[in-house]
Automatic annotation (TrEMBL):
CDD domains: 2-Hacid_dh_8. PANTHER family: 2-HYDROXYACID DEHYDROGENASE YGL185C-RELATED (PTHR10996:SF178), 2-HYDROXYACID DEHYDROGENASE-RELATED (PTHR10996). Pfam families: 2-Hacid_dh_C (PF02826). It comes from the Bacteria. Keywords: NAD, Oxidoreductase. InterPro entries: D-isomer_2-hydroxyacid_DH, D-isomer_DH_CS, D-isomer_DH_NAD-bd, NAD(P)-bd_dom_sf. Transmembrane segments: none annotated. Residues 120-300 form the D-isomer specific 2-hydroxyacid dehydrogenase NAD-binding domain. PROSITE patterns: D_2_HYDROXYACID_DH_2, D_2_HYDROXYACID_DH_3. This is Hydroxyacid dehydrogenase.
Length: 340
């Protein structure tokens, strides 16, 4: 493009500061005309509407308001929305997709912190770290070192969903020596085998079989109507005694009331970074009170210094757009039925 396209940021100001440091802002200035002092959280604000009218590229992030029909009508020159975060479902709806505007997400950049977090949780869960920390505080110093429920050696981990995060977790598990099972109805055995680099292997199984055979079950499926309460009371009952359920995906994949019942018996443990139907959970929720359940506040994805990874990805996409190249993180309307 001979002239730099006009760009506008729409996200929380603190997100913009974390995602786009001085070096990234310099890179943006080289390819688009953007006012870094204007970060929009309300498209109805007069200054925002004036900038929106001329914007060709919209840089979005956490806190971006929905792009309604009225907002899109006020942005006649808009050609691309570059999202410096993961899911676009919160701000891009049917009105957006009907207009043929390009969309990109930094979900690939957000995936690695989630996979890294998940792997850390699995290793700590194998040592019963969270339960033992609570017991230590109550006066019990150390559990029997010979208990078969402790340790990571010889364990089987079941991965539910070969999402972008699930695909990162698979080789991490193999490198740590775990036997790896995968349940994903969209894959063939050949597809699954191709996900694991040699010399490691993966076994594609049905979900019920995975639940029966796994010491740890980690969820990486999208939240869709067909995956709502994928782990219901019956399926939670299939998990073997002493197993651990890890959810860093979407809370709606698990029937929370059923999970409370199963964990309350002490038969299975759970580590939840996401919950359903409430997020955040209200104080005093039963999940907070169970000694074998840990609930964290949706922190597996990019946070703090990691947010710069999202900004880096988004800026690279803006550069690709300016050069007339395909967007690596392109999202299309027909992708929505299978992504988070």
């Amino acid at each position: 493009m001979a002239d730099r396209a006009a760009a506008l940021s729409a996200m929380r100001p603190d997100v913009a500061d974390a995602a786009f440091g001085p070096a990234l802002r310099t890179r943006l200035d080289a390819v688009v005309d953007i006012d870094h002092g204007l970060v929009v959280t309300d498209f109805a604000e007069p200054r925002a509407r004036r900038a929106l009218a001329g914007a060709e590229v919209l840089l979005t992030g956490w806190g971006c308001p929905p792009l309604t029909a009225a907002v899109l009508d006020a942005a006649p020159n808009l050609r691309a929305v570059i999202h410096a975060a993961g899911s676009v479902k919160q701000h891009l709806g049917p009105d957006f997709w009907a207009r043929g505007i390009l969309a990109s997400s930094a979900a690939d950049a957000n995936a690695y912190p989630v996979a890294q977090f998940t792997m850390s949780v699995i290793l700590l869960a194998g040592k019963r770290t969270f339960l033992m920390a609570r017991r230590y505080a109550e006066g019990e110093y150390k559990h029997s070192a010979s208990s078969r429920h402790f340790g990571n050696t010889g364990r089987t981990v079941g991965v539910v969903g070969a999402s972008r995060i699930g695909r990162l977790v698979l080789p991490m598990l193999a490198r740590e020596g775990f036997r790896v099972l995968l349940a994903d109805p969209t894959l063939s055995a050949a597809d699954a085998a191709a996900l694991m680099p040699a010399p490691w292997s993966i076994e594609l199984v049905e979900l019920d079989d995975l639940l029966r055979r796994s010491d740890v079950v980690t969820l990486h499926a999208p939240s869709l109507p067909e995956t709502h309460h994928l782990l219901d009371d019956r399926r939670l009952g299939l998990m073997r005694d002493g197993s651990v359920l890890v959810n860093t995906a979407r809370g709606a994949l698990i029937d929370t009331e059923a999970l409370v019942r199963h964990c309350a018996t002490g038969r299975i443990d759970a580590f939840l970074d996401v919950t359903d139907p409430d997020e955040p959970l209200p104080p005093g929720h039963p999940l907070f009170l169970l000694p074998n359940v840990v609930v964290t506040p949706h922190l597996a994805g990019a946070m703090g210094t990691e947010v710069a990874l999202l900004g880096e990805y988004a800026v690279a996409e803006v550069e690709r757009y300016a050069a007339g190249l395909p967007l690596l993180g392109a999202v299309r309307e027909d992708d929505l039925a299978r992504i988070a």
